[in-house]
Write a structure and sequence with these properties.
The chain has about 500 residues and is α/β, with parallel strands linked by helices. The protein contains 17 helices and 14 strands. The strands form four sheets. Strands 6-2-1-7-8-10-9 form a seven-stranded mixed sheet.
């Protein structure tokens, strides 16, 4: 394990230097398992020995690069999810009036099955009416995968993933027993090399289909990519994730619409709107509560002046505080901006004069009020302290819940990753089993032919003898025994020169 932890960063650095791929933000456990798989296949002793090989073997470096990314994909993967996506979310979007294009981005598209699946369901929704232009972008960092995706040619095994109706409508069967996506579907799909973790993102997308990519990334990279997807989508655009993936702490950017299939829609996040929300929820003071209801009445075209502010604040003070206090409005300019802010000063000396004029009776009443006010303040302070203590406990509990959720999410992702690795291994074993069955059939055919040939040789009355380059007899049939008088036991393994008389050696 120490060898793995020490050597893996060096292997990743080599991949970055030679191939330009930064994998340092991928989950370490997954990378270790994939590298260990290559090491076992090559029968090497350690990670260090494998690193030595990688430094001098460019072909193996490319093989590792391809093997690090688990190639688990198929047409309409999780068919129920695609049906819901089509009927519940895409149908209305594609039917919107005035829409001219519908843009889709599929990061980490592998060999293209998911890209073509999206193209097919969109084509089914549009039918023969093509007022809406489809633009579907499939991206990946593996150029070999992209080459296969561009050709749109897939093995006969896709019949298990696609209904006979779709297969007949959207695929051509080639002579070699494989299928090719029809030209009309291929033409709306564009495949390009793109690293979603490093390259600038696409923009103005209606749908991002990024399923089971985030599970391979560390939490920090997941947190960084969700805002990237938010930027890439149009307002109310759809984010379609894998069954074990979420937007994490970015619930302010996306709204969850279907928990079963992990469909999110983009929220419009406006800094101006956030500032307005804060302005409409001022601190809990009588003066602030008096001013706040008047704020929304002002529109952009109504310029605030010192006079209008003075009128507004004076009215609020008289109605809510009851003192004829002096007001002073000071305008301040903001550097490099045409906007202004205003400081409002309240002079309560007028209120004091009013109290003094009421005489001793008013002072007595005022003293009583002050005592009541002092008690109220003490009570409020105690309540505030208790509230802060409860709030602190709630914050701590909330942080523990968030931490637990993140741990659970990480566990789910690890399980999903392991599931995909097992699926990949099963697919490889399936391919190997098919190859072994094919070889067994060939061997059986060869054995049948050999048996038939042996029967012909054994039943022949002619001498049929085989020997190697050193003239040593390998086989000897019954016809040879009849003609030369030697049995097979006497001749096999001996030199054929035994049959030649001494005077005929030359």
């Amino acid at each position: 394990m120490v060898d793995r932890k020490k050597t893996l960063p060096k292997i990743l650095s080599l991949l970055d230097t030679r191939l330009g791929v930064d994998l340092t933000q991928y989950k370490e456990g997954t990378l270790q398992r994939r590298v260990a798989r290559r090491i076992a296949a090559l029968k090497l002793a350690s990670f260090e020995a494998y690193l030595t090989l990688l430094r001098k073997d460019e072909i193996e470096l490319q093989s590792l690069f391809s093997d690090l990314f688990i190639q688990v994909t198929e047409f309409f993967r999780d068919a129920h999810a695609f049906d819901l996506l089509k009927n519940k979310f895409l149908a209305d979007r594609l039917a919107e009036k005035g829409r001219q294009t519908f843009r889709v981005w599929v990061p980490a598209c592998s060999t293209g099955e998911e890209v073509y699946s999206i193209a097919i369901i969109c084509s089914e929704l549009l039918g023969v009416k093509r007022d809406v232009q489809l633009q579907i972008f499939g991206t990946d960092i593996n150029e070999k995968n992209l080459e296969k995706a561009r050709t749109g040619v897939y093995s006969d095994s896709i019949r298990k993933q696609i209904s006979p109706q779709r297969l007949a409508r959207y695929f051509d069967r080639l002579e070699q027993g494989v299928y090719r996506v029809k030209k009309g579907i291929r033409e709306v799909c564009v495949f390009a090399r793109h690293d979603v973790t490093a390259d600038p993102p696409f923009s103005a997308m209606d749908l991002i289909c990024c399923r089971n990519l985030l599970i391979y990334f560390q939490q920090s990279l997941q947190e960084r990519l969700i805002p990237v997807f938010h930027y890439s989508l149009r307002n109310s655009g759809i984010l379609f994730l894998g069954l074990s993936e979420t937007v994490g702490r970015h619930s302010d950017l996306f709204e969850l619409h279907d928990k079963r299939i992990k469909v999110f829609t983009r929220k419009e996040k406006s800094p101006g709107a956030l500032a307005l929300d804060k302005f409409r929820n001022p601190p809990a003071s009588r003066f602030a509560r008096a001013i706040a209801p008047n704020v929304p009445k002002f529109k952009k075209e109504h310029r605030l002046t010192e006079k209008s502010i003075h009128t507004l604040v004076s009215k609020a003070v008289q109605e809510n505080i009851g003192a004829e206090d002096a007001l002073n409005i000071v305008p301040l300019s903001i550097p490099q901006s045409s906007d202004k802010i205003y400081l409002v000063f309240l002079d309560s000396s007028g209120a004091k004069r009013h109290i003094e004029s009421n005489g001793a009776k008013g002072q007595t009443k005022n003293a009583s009020l002050r005592r009541e006010l002092s008690k109220s303040r003490d009570s409020l302070r105690q309540m505030s302290e208790r509230r802060e203590a409860v709030s602190e406990e709630l914050r701590a509990a909330n942080e523990e819940v968030i931490s637990s959720n993140e741990e659970l999410q990480s566990t789910n992702e690890e399980l999903e990753t392991a599931k995909e690795e097992l699926q990949s291994i099963n697919e490889e074993l399936g391919a190997l089993n098919r190859e072994l069955k094919s070889r067994n059939l060939d061997l059986e055919k060869s054995a049948a032919i050999s048996s038939q040939f042996t029967a012909i040789v054994d039943s022949s009355h002619d001498a049929i003898i085989s020997k190697n380059l050193e003239s040593i007899v390998q086989t000897w049939n019954a016809g040879a025994t009849e003609i030369f008088g030697y049995t097979a036991e006497e001749m096999v393994g001996k030199s054929i020169t035994i049959l030649i008389p001494e005077d005929h050696y030359d």
